[in-house]
Amino acid sequence: MNIRTKSFAIAIGYGFAAGALAALVLYLMQSVQHLLWSHDYGNHPGYIFTVITIGGAILAWIQHYRHQGTAGDGSVQQQLHALHSPLQAKKRDTLLIAVSAIIAVGFGGAVGPEAGLLAVAAGCSAIISLLLAASQQEQRLIRDTGAVAALSGLYGAPPGAAILVDEQANGQIDAQATPLVLKFLAAVCGLSGFWFSHQWLTHGDFQALPLPDYTQTGSDAVTALPTALCGALLGLLYLKLHHKMPQWLAHIGSPFRQILVASIIFAAMAACFPLLRFSGHHEMAHALEHSIQLGFWGLLALALGKVLAMTICLCGGWRGGEFFPAIFAAAALAAAVHLLVPAIPLTVAIVSAAGAMATVCMGKPIAVLLIMLLLTGLASTGALFAGILLGYAAQWWYAKYQQHEAA
Asked: Membrane spanning segments where (predicted)?
């Protein structure tokens, strides 16, 4: 088999298998979540505190058993960075990583499932690379195939997943990246594997963001500027907290203690405000339906609390992703602004704020654009472009600010 044929075979075969594996891990996450929370006392403060604390204790034990040096190694950006690190055999770690990812989502962590799926895919890719790869290029192809297949299945956006893996913070693509055609092929096959496996396991459909009906106008991009700015500022708050939180947790002591303390703090927050649990993807409809009852200050507290809870979880050993929690926080803030300024349509407010915050948090505007288009459709493309542009500008400014602080 020549190199070109082998590359396409890896992209197709392993892409499909990695997508199916991602669906299985996601199903286990959701099954644990359903088992723990889908009953009458699932919203009782004492029960919430107990379950999350137990989950944190399990994660602390897994971290201690794996002999990892730090507690905060679970965000999407860190997983993507580790994806292209030197290859290591991770046969034992793969199972432990899968368990920790399932615990983080199932026990109510304020995180999305994507980083856990990425970590499991990376572990499997490392093992497969040892068996199949004949060169560093093939090693990278296998790792990229596993990553884009998992993300494509979760987001339902093959183009966005293909770009996300190698897009840098400045919007450029890594010069040593796997050819885009192979990544896109792997993403499509991964989505197929994910869909078939997900349908077989759950018979569920992909859920887009629950946006109110809205007819676009030519002024959406201008109308969206205030909420896009709010979303960008909320994203900057997350970046600052994510930078400072590991330093604060380091004063506690060992990673084991850090995870326990962070989990207890998050458990107390969730017991007081149950909407802070989970990724927020499925909770957004409930929050928007009750936005009038929550009022401006309640929605603002929900947005800020979600950012803080997400940061504590990601830096405190709860392996997960920031994309869906960031969108939830941005939507809550957008709804608060909408209550103050009803002239800004709620759909425009949510799309622009979510686009801005996701761009700031992830630093990958092209990938955010492609993924958000799949999640929101054509609800308000002008607002989405305005949000992403403002978010990109805010992220660029923050990068310059960090360079100045380091100098």
From this structure: 7-29, 44-62, 94-111, 117-134, 180-201, 221-239, 259-276, 296-315, 327-354, 366-393
